[in-house]
Amino acid sequence: MNKINVIFWSGTGNTERMAEAIVNGAKKEGAEVNLIPVSAASVDDVKNVEKIAFGCPAMGAEELEENEMRPFMDSVNPLLAGKKIILFGSYEWADGEWMKSWQSEVEDIGANLLADGFAAYDNPDEDAIDECESLGKDLARA
């Protein structure tokens, strides 16, 4: 079965909207998809699937959210080698450096990043939501 977990953190709902669009795209390709807030995610949610989308907005000085998402990523990074991964999130300042850093982090541990991390500015517009849906379809087809 084509199983995908979409694990995300969202403070204002912007990244959650992106996560929902990824889920919709993957489902259109016939994938079985779980949408999981990082607060409810477990290591098994990463261990037991080969395809995962992770979402988190830029926080602070362009970094992952520090209380839930960063610790979760630290706990699952050793499991990502060889898995098919998509990264996404929103930002409202600077130039999206957090996404570039996050992308390097997962590539350096051997994850198969299917596309460059996708960063939407502020509240994702229709084009950004369409891009997220396309990423979901790509993940399902991978």
Short structural summary:
The protein has about 140 residues and is an alpha/beta fold. The protein has helices at about 15-30, 45, 70-75, 95-110, 125-140; strands at about 5-10, 30-35, 50-55, 85-90, 110-115, 120.
Major sheet, described briefly?
Answer: 6 strands, parallel
Shape from CA axes? globular
Distance between the termini: 13 Å
The number of distinct structural domains comes to: 1
CATH architecture grouping: 3-Layer(aba) Sandwich
Count up the helices: 5
Poorly predicted regions are none
Helix/sheet category: alpha/beta
What's the CATH H-level homologous superfamily? Flavodoxin domain
Average pLDDT number: 95
Strand content: 15-25%
CATH topology: Rossmann fold
Radius of gyration: 13 Å
Helix content: 25-40%
Structural summary, described in words:
This protein is an alpha/beta fold. It has one domain (3-141): Rossmann fold. The protein is 39% helix and 22% strand. Strands 1, 2, 3, 4, 5 and 6 form a 6-stranded parallel beta sheet that branches. It is globular, with a radius of gyration of 13 Å. The model has no long low-confidence stretch (mean pLDDT 95).
Provide key terms for this protein.
alpha/beta, single chain, six-stranded parallel sheet, Rossmann fold, 142 residues, 39% helix, 6 strands
